[in-house]
Fold protein-glutamate O-methyltransferase.
Amino acid sequence: MADFLAMDVRQADVPIAAVGASAGGITALQKLFERLPVSIPFALVVLQHLPADKTSGLANLIARWTRLPVRAATDGTRPVANCVYVPSPDRILTLEDGVFRTRPAEGGERRPGIDTIDSFLESLSQREAPRSLAVILSGTGMDGAAGALRIRQAGGVVIVQDPLTALYDGMPNAVIQRGIHDHILPLAAIGQQLVACADPAYVRPVPSGGSAVGASETLGRIIELVRQRAGFDLSGYKPSPLLWRIQQRMDAREIWSFDDYAYLIEDDPVELEVLVRGIPIHVTEFFRDADAWTVLRDEVLGPIVSRHEKQRTVRVWTPACSTGEEAYSVAMLLDEMSQERAEPFDFQVFATDAAPELVARASRGLFRVKSLAGVSEARQSQYFYKVDGAFRVKRCLREKLVCVPQDLISDPPFSGLDLVTCRNLFIYLESETVRTLLSVLHGALRVGGVLFLGKSEAYPLAGQGFEVVSSKWNIYRKVGPMPGGGRMSSVPRPASNGQALAAALRVAHEQFDVPSVLIDDTCSVLRTYGNTKGILRLPAGEPSLDLTELVPRQWAARLEHGVRQVLERHEAIVLTGLHDGDANSAAASVRLTPLQTSSGDARDRILVSFIREDDTLDALQADGSSVLQDDLGMDDAIDWKDEARISREEVEASHEELLALNEELKASNEQLNQSNEDLDQANVELQENIAQLAMQSRVLLSGAVMTLLLDAELKLRWFTPSMRDLFPLRDNDTGRSIADLVPIFRDPDFYTDIRRVLDAADPREAVIRNGGGRCLLRKIFPYVAQTGVIDGVAITFADITDRVHAEVALRRNEAWLSAQKEAFQAAMNGERLGASLGVLIRTLAAQAQDGRRCAFYIADGDVLHHVVGMPDAYAQCVDGFRISPESLACGLAVATGEPVITRDVLDEPRWRSWTWLAKKFGYRGCWSFPVETSEGNLVGSLAMYFDEPRGPSPMDLDLAAAFTQTAGIIIWRYLQSGQIREL
């Protein structure tokens, strides 16, 4: 059948190579392009992470590094071979139907590894031929790892920069550690390897051939574990968001193998819960894209309301509602339109999401102030009221929403709908899942009903049962059946243990509100629901999740026996007459409900519900469960059938009295419900505040914050543990005068500033140094009591050593720039080459302040000559040093075009025959950097010598790169002018 979305990508003939690097990967990109062949049989796309609001000069830089034409990757452009394409930083680039497609980066909502490198690699991987290529260069984080996996799955080739040559090795290592690479190469070799991989005769290296398949199988195993154990079906999601979240958790738990992480979530239910809660992307707001909502009101809701039947309710569905902002936005529009009409109409909004905790938040309708940025003041006044510093939707509007958990991918949809708003969900789903869900939503709509999608979700739905209402805002109206007369092939929807659990919980909450726990066949607690306080108790000793150890000791034997009965009978039972040993506490009952797993056979999950015996027996046995009278020898067991009969007779005897009482109860029921709801909300807020205070206390006591508080008499009231680094404090020092404590830092104005702040209430600060040479920013603030009186001072210390060092480094950079300028000026004035390069040498040695010695050497044929820097005696010893791959230090650096870092010449085998020279002139560390011209010609080297063994820092490497580039320009000028023979 014809694909009604035309989403199957038409193959383009040109191969495409995608190069991903972070914002700090400029040097890596430069070296890659400078060694790239002048003609390439593929299109090259360069992807770099930059803030969306910054202007990128990357295209201009690449044009200086290569002779290949450099073009902008704009929407609708079809890539051609032998060209370089660079997307705008404020657009997300993908490849669809063989052409580039772009969408807005959505400001700050971009996520590393999803909306830039991985997004393009994912779209590129959907082509069957020709072979796609991916290159991952220097960068931090995991960007590109998920996309690289997709490229390998599709038969493409993944090339990674050797981490030993990368300034930032996070991105290369993220690919290498997951085993989804084909080649690990230095920058100089990547260009030629790309050309070789683009050849149809290329054969993938055997050692790493199956790693991507293994990673893919393990990802499928993780998805299946999440589906079986948490009831969350991820099979329709794109791998990029899933891998991004999984890799975050792997890095947090210090796990580098997908297999190991799969084993972890099998053994650790808490880790599984953390993973599941973090996977959905919940980005929503009130009236997002205000112009789109204007079109929705005027061109969609207006016609729907004008032609709706008086007795029929307008029905709206918001799947994937998150915290409910979008659903409440629709409800506000409909309520306004209803009030404007002479005859108001009724409407109902169904808000659903796969995450029950989000549905609960949407149902409460409580939002922070910043969430209402898109809501006008008039609407805030009409539909919200302020409580506890937040805004809550008024009951009249909340009652128009039905908030229930529902997985759009696996659960049945609603029907007979006038409007479905499903915005920005499909961008996270696979194309096949999108096609299926669009078919599901089409079937849920009435003829004339409207589908409202996100602005980045443009699909060719015209002629596929829809007509376009607004192409700009992706609003479509259902006008007839889909071509083919039915729904498209759907994603598999196996019944899951989580779905059975959700159904059981919905029934339980409809019948009675009870605390419950989910256990397995060994009585291990997997999850708790509701308030189990007073029922479950943590025993002394080693913590345990065994339910029989958490309940009162008197319940354990009967509970264990009941679990065995449930597993044998495969039907729910109730344990009654349970007492916890407290004479004042009421008896309780425990209902055990077996839950079926996805296999449909074994029942290895049991829902244990705790009910007080004043709850009705009918509710307990509403589903036909039996009441278990165990055979443990309890003579006082209650015959529940007789008691139920007696209770019904008593109820009938007092029926008239209850009817009268019921009328009175109805009158106050609404007030009680409102009060109860407000109390529940207040309790939730209180618990949140307690958790917030506990978190703040842990932060303050963690050692990261240095603070102390003095009272009005300058006596110590409170201090954080980290203050012991600055004062000789002990726990019993509270109440001592600050003057009695001798600080471990130099601050002559400390006590004077405390008194000034206490007297004048003006904060004061100063920069001080402690005994260890660290720089600290000391601030003193007045402490104001609730009465408004200054009741003491708060003193904080912040470590600013790194900032001070950065300022020093900045001043050094200014000195280096000045030296480069002076060296260029000397060369322009015709001074000797040694004088020009000597300026650079002196600046390097002076600014480093570590005793290093530096020298420049110039290449003459296949040998090196000393120019400036080292003594004449040393120059005579090394003059004429050979340039070859078998050489060491400068000779090897010029031969290979790569830096040669020798941390300790005494430990390097190549130096064995030259250690006499190092000992004679007193150095142990030797770094050599090649000097090349802008044309790529190697003309010499820069050497640095150190008294002790040492390796370079990133600043050392950047400095060497800058000065060798300057030296290359100067030497090339002397070569061109013929003055080089002066040496």
Q: What stands out?
A: The chain has six domains: 16-208, 216-277, 290-478, 497-629, 706-799, 809-982. The CA atoms of residues 214 and 435 lie 28 Å apart. The chain has 29 helices and 37 strands. The radius of gyration is 36 Å.
